[in-house]
Design goal:
With 130 residues, the protein is an alpha+beta fold. The chain has 5 helices and 5 strands; from the N terminus they run αααββββαβα. β3 and β4 form a beta hairpin. The termini are far apart.
Length: 130
């Protein structure tokens, strides 16, 4: 994979943003430094970077794709009301429960992804007020 100025800038901006931005949000951030970059360029590069395993593409049915530059083993917690996503540190090794789930499937586990769902502190606070 070629290292381009646009690709490098996208990675830099993604690493700065810990909010797990969408492609559109990342585009707005990158555009401040590279005003001539197109949204299509950002989308294409995010797909290439995620396919190459340089970044993670997050997404679940119905929610917009978001991207994560943190490649350490970790899980995510997503607010079901506003869509905010935060990191949840994890040990990285399969637990006995994980091993029990995959035992007998014939699969060799390459990666473990866990997503917790709930209400973020801001949504909880708003809910308490109204």
């Amino acid at each position: 994979m070629r290292k381009t100025k646009q690709r490098s800038m996208i990675i830099e901006e993604l690493m700065k943003l810990h909010s797990h931005p969408s492609a559109d949000e990342l585009y707005e951030s990158v555009r401040k430094r590279l005003p001539r970059i197109s949204l299509g360029t950002v989308y294409r590069n995010l797909e290439i970077l995620s396919r190459e395993g340089i970044i993670h593409r997050l997404g679940s049915g119905g929610s917009p794709r978001r991207f994560d530059g943190t490649m350490d083993e970790h899980s995510h917690i997503r607010c079901t009301r506003c869509g905010r996503i935060d990191d949840v540190p994890s040990g990285g090794k399969l637990t006995e429960c994980d091993k029990g789930i995959v035992r007998g499937t014939g699969y060799r586990v390459l990666e473990r992804r866990v997503e917790f769902l709930g209400l973020c502190p801001a949504c909880r606070k708003r809910g308490a007020r109204g």
